[in-house]
């Protein structure tokens, strides 16, 4: 049996007060937990935006292509790609990378389904444990 692991991080953050595509995208990425404090150059954000542009063109990209376009080391790109893959946002196929879907609304819909599935499993196990421990 193959187990699939998806790490979903959601951060509740105040939406930007201005109508600006860059601040909206940054809020979107922050809310999905794409950034960490070590990513001073917002490499993961830049990588996500590049994949978003590629999705618009229905194009897959290699880690070398991404590294060249973003002026990052391939190791940095691979590190962030692995994080995005683990979160279920990016898919890898034959050394090519692309967003899980072609637009952000669909991406949110898929993440929502993942979260609902995880919570359903948690509730089922919680009820089973409650029954065994005779908890009300």
From the structure above, extract its key features.
2 strands; Arc Repressor Mutant, subunit A; 136 residues; globular; two-stranded antiparallel ribbon
Strand order of the largest sheet: 1-2
Q: Percent range for helical residues?
A: 55-70%
Gross morphology is globular
Determine the number of helices (DSSP H or I, runs of at least 4 residues): 5
Rounded to the nearest angstrom, the distance between the terminal CA atoms is 34 Å
How big a fraction of the residues is strand? 5-15%
CATH topology of the domain at 21-100: Arc Repressor Mutant, subunit A
What average pLDDT do the residues reach?
89
Main sheet?
2 strands, antiparallel
For the record, the CATH class of the domain at 21-100 is Mainly Alpha
Q: Indicate the radius of gyration in whole angstroms.
A: 18 Å
Can you walk me through this structure?
It is a single chain. By secondary structure, this protein is mostly helical. The protein has a domain of 80 residues: Orthogonal Bundle (Arc Repressor Mutant, subunit A), CATH 1.10.10.10. Helices cover 55% and strands 6% of the residues. The protein contains five helices and two strands; from the N terminus they run ααααββα. A two-stranded antiparallel ribbon has the order 1-2. A hairpin with a 2-residue loop joins strand 1 and strand 2. It starts with 20 loop residues before the first helix and ends with a helix.
Question: Helix and strand layout, with pairings?
Answer:
Elements: H1 21-31, H2 43-56, H3 63-70, H4 74-86, E1 90-93, E2 96-99, H5 104-132
Antiparallel strand pairs: 1-2
Helix pairs in contact: 2-4, 3-4
């Amino acid at each position: 049996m193959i187990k699939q692991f998806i790490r979903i991080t959601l951060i509740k953050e105040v939406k930007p007060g201005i109508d600006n595509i860059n601040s909206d995208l940054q809020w979107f990425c922050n809310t999905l937990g794409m950034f960490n404090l070590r990513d001073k150059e917002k490499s993961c954000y830049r990588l996500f935006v590049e994949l978003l542009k590629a999705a618009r063109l229905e194009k897959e990209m290699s880690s070398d292509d991404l590294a060249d376009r973003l002026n990052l080391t391939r190791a940095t790109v691979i590190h962030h790609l692995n994080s995005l893959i683990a979160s279920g946002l990016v898919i890898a196929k034959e050394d090519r990378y692309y967003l899980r879907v072609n637009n952000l609304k669909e991406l949110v819909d898929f993440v929502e389904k993942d979260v609902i599935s995880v919570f359903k499993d948690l509730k089922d196990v919680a009820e089973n444990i409650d029954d065994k421990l005779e908890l009300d």
